[in-house]
Amino acid sequence: MKLFKRNKIYLSPGQKKIRNKEISFAVISGILLGVSFTPFPFSYFSFFALIAFFYVLEKRDSLASINRFSYVTFFIFNVITLYWIGSWTKETDPFLMISGVLLLFFNPLFYLIITTIYYFSKRSFGKKTALLLFPL
Length: 136
Description:
Number of domains: 1
Number of helices: 6
């Protein structure tokens, strides 16, 4: 007996190509957001990162797909900006390294709150109003 029964969805080659393109947009968006913060002098990259982020966000129709895409984007963003918290040196406390890894995996979950609110505001108020409410 399987505890978690998952229905496998088969995609056509065209759908796989579109999915891979959207995943690459998520990775690019996460990288651009990551390098637009303090140690790097490229603060204007955040504008281009948000363009790629909203481009794919608008193509998604379900909350689960929006949250999957957002998690990938913000996981890469957190890897770039929070890598130093684990203190990856020779004689580091192993609990510090474990907590750094856990932080990298669980911190993107906080950003899913924002995209969930965006999804529900998009359904309630429309696309333009949801985009205006996103920074709030």
